[in-house]
Amino acid sequence: MTMRRRQRAQWILMVLCGVLGAGVYLQLRHERAAAHVPLTALDPATARSLYIECRGCGTRRFERIDGHWQMRVPRDARADEAAVARLLAIATAPVLRRYPAGALDPARIGLQPPQAVLRVDALELRFGGTDAIDGDRYVDTGAAIVLVPEQYTALLFEPAEREIARAAESAATR
After folding, report:
1. With 0-12 CB in 10 A as exposed, 13-18 as middle and 19+ as buried, what is 113?
2. In CA terms, which of 34, 118, 136, 155 is 20 to 30 Å from 74?
3. Is 101 helix (H, G, I), strand (E, B) or coil?
4. What global pTM score does this model have?
């Protein structure tokens, strides 16, 4: 009789392990699918202008002229192409979570007023505070409020000097 109980317990444990394994698989599949949804459909290669405004770090404006990025504000200088590419990558950051417009209070999540604004051509994104638990940044796309990894958006708050080409800096100091 104890043999039957032991076999039944083993079967129950195997079924529970199978159910848990399937649950983990489905959750991972869901997270992978959600992680591939970009913030916007922008193609960074086609961008012609870039504008960044943030509290505490000033305004920066860039234009693509003859295939090269030029900083226009705060000063006129050749821009570091890699730095501008990283800024453009913000617009294609993976969306971690999406909330419909009106689902969150913009003032409570730092979007009213926004902490930073990124404009790429006609596209405008407004950046708020960070999520208290995961540290991801709230972004108002106009159609929805989303969360994106902070590693992408931290570049918005850096000083303009980081985006000036090294060759332009060395020529200006001579």
Report:
1. exposed
2. 136
3. coil
4. 0.75
